Amino acid sequence: MLADIGILITEINGWALDWPTLLYVIAVCILVTVACRFVQFRYFLAAWKYTLFPEKKTSAAADMTPFQAFLNSLSTGLGNGSVGGVATAVFSGGPGAAFWILAIGFIVMSVRYAEVFLSTYFAGRQSTQQNLGGPMLYLLSVPAGIWLVRVYVFFGLLFCLGVGNGMQTNTIGISLNSTWGINPWITAVVSFAFLLYVVFGGAPRIIRVSDRLVPVKVVTFFTATIIVLCYHYQNIIPALKLIFTSAFTPMAIAGGALGFTVQQALKYGLIRSIAATESGLGTTAIFYGSSGSKEPEKSGIMSMLSSFISTIVCFMVALCIIASGVWDSGATSTALTVKAFNTVFGVYGGWIVSFLSMTFGMGVLVSYAYLTREFWFYITNRKYESVFAILYCLVAFAAVFVDPTVLWSWADIPNAVMLTINLLGIVWLLPLIKRETTAFMAKN
Predict the structure, then answer these.
(1) How far is CA 413 from the centre of its chain?
(2) Per residue, what are the HEC states of 290-322?
(3) Burial (CB count <10 Å: 0-12, 13-18, 19+), residue 4
(4) Model confidence at 289, in pLDDT bands (50, 70, 90)?
(5) Could you tell me the residue ranges of all domains in the chain?
(6) Per-residue confidence band for 382, with pLDDT thresholds at 50, 70 and 90
(7) pLDDT for position 202
(8) Which pTM does this prediction carry?
(9) What kind of fold does domain 9-54+71-443 have according to CATH?
(10) pLDDT by residue (tens digit) across 353-371?
């Protein structure tokens, strides 16, 4: 029975993020980029300024400040998809996938701007005192919006539980077991206890723990990857050339018996870029909608930076894999990333990757606890918070023992639904985004 469900999920996943969906995403990203007058390029430096000198919390009822919204959106973008997902993209799409991860990463920044702008714009105009934000708010202005919101929230809850929660504990369990031989039951129990402490503290504790985890994740990752790249410094230029040429020309390997096409490189680069940055999903819009911001344009510009950093993280992982020469070793996912780090750190490479997997995963678990809580509150009209807390912890516990193939296959299904609905709302409200953004640019 479980095997049949896994096969069905894999088959549905095959077309959930296939070319029709991907071309739709690219078209919307280009449309928004043009309508917003290339905001991601014109205001790239301003994004750093607004992040380093952010707006203070403007509402006593707000769950977080704009800067905390930035940290949480960055945390969700730095997960095990960056450690293992990028390696899978290189394995399936070849070195050229790394180029498209970078290129698409810049394009989707415009959509990140648009969704956060809409969330803070409408949040500042709602009459209720609830910290409601994200697509649940601005989709109501779209025809049949209430039904779109209901579908979005349903799949959003499934996405948070399966990807933001289950996939993280599953990957942590596999990494700790393969590296240090830690029994999965120990990982499951510790994850359950940790999350029980976090989620029962409500929004303040979730945000406080997330604030402390993000710097650890960022410092650990950049320190480790920079050491790997410095060690292979002579291979960086050849690796960059290989990435660029493979992005535009078919590439044969294994004596021409196997190879990578340009379409493969583009497809897997696009999928990984969307999954890593989460631009277009609307999740970041929920964080900013709960921040009490009164400046939607600045919040949108500020939010683009977390999307950019997530893209750079993914590209650096891919560059480490390619520059170290292990990209065609036959390994995939986290095992391929481990091989790259092993070329520098020996057997301790697996230790470092496992530590990255653990810190990345725990950070995502905490940030997604807030998102899951918001989806749950929408469905239950802000009731049964204790039930949500127990459910979230139980999913984290059980996911440690699930076949990882099923979890990774499942990820693309709610991802595709959320993307489709959220981008539809952005396109419908694009005249509003364009008008307000143009007026903001005229003043700044």
Answers:
(1) 15
(2) CCCCCCHHHHHHHHHHHHHHHHHHHHHHHHHHH
(3) exposed
(4) confident
(5) 9-54+71-443
(6) confident
(7) 87
(8) 0.92
(9) Amino acid/polyamine transporter I (1.20.1740)
(10) 888 888 888 999 999 999 9
